[in-house]
Amino acid sequence: MKAFKAAEALYLTAGNHENVAHCVIRCADIYRCQGRFIQSQKLLENFQCSDSWIYLSKPMKFKAWFFLDDARKYTFATSADELFIKSMDDRSWGLQSKVRHWRTKWYYGGEIVQVKTHLENLSLQCQQMGNLSDRKEALLGLAEVAFYEGRLSDAMDILQKIVDMFEGKNSDDVLWFTVWKAIVASMQENHALARELVLQASGPFEFLALHDARTFLHRSYGSARIELTAGEYHSAKSQFTATIESCNMQGDLFYKASSVRGLGECAFMQDNFALAAECFAKTRLLCSEMGVPSEHLYSCSPLGVLPDKFEGWALFLEGRSPFANVM
User: Fold this and answer.
1) Which of 129, 133, 155, 200 has the greatest count of CB atoms below 10 A from its CB?
2) Model's pTM, two decimal places?
3) If you write DSSP's letter for every residue of 18-73 in order, what string do you get?
């Protein structure tokens, strides 16, 4: 972040507004990846009021609009019909904007059959164009839908298709989606396979973790979530706590909020309702800091949703027993 801000100042002095935009957008995306959605949104909105914005090329403005909407979607303050519309007309960002638009429509409660149809068509279009990155996004949307509908085998197959696409090409994507596969396996109650998949993702991962903190947090949280789903609450607490410590070092709010909620569910399942309430209250504060409505903590990350039996968070938000007097 500091390097991009320093470079931005140098480019601004030199009058290189395109590279100023690159730096601003990169900083905004770092904020988004950390769950700092309000900061990301404000940075890009303020940039549109800057002198540099006047001098930008149209493609660069399309890029800025895309990343702005990628942050705005988490706040649920704008209609899904308005998100990713401006960037749809660009050659570079148009196809991915359409994919993100339809995925966001579903996150916001859109009709699932319509969303599936659009994502399937967009995935085919990406395949015909040889566009791996955008096809990955479309397939991920289809995997999320399958996961939500309880078609876990289909979700696993789609995620494996993404892994196969990037095997030998992009280790980061392979690791990221291997962890998602592990989470799906845990939902199938195949906890041994889930742990094996996470272990697979730990091999070359130790080297990559030095360069990609977010991928490290993804694996760490995924491992904690698997232990929680397996009912291994002591192990889950240790993993969630380790993830929170890493989040504190990296300034990540999203995985911290999810992990604190996980600790709350561990306490809830062990009838420690006072500790559960404390954890859920912290989670709600983190949601506020991110700019995410508490009830939508997982709405834009459907694969992160915990099994229905972990109902402590929902009961807390609704003020129901045993949390009726702690709101």
Assistant:
1) 155
2) 0.94
3) HHHHHHHHHHHHHHHHTT-HHHHHHHHHHHTTSHHHHH--HHHHHHHHHHHHHHHG
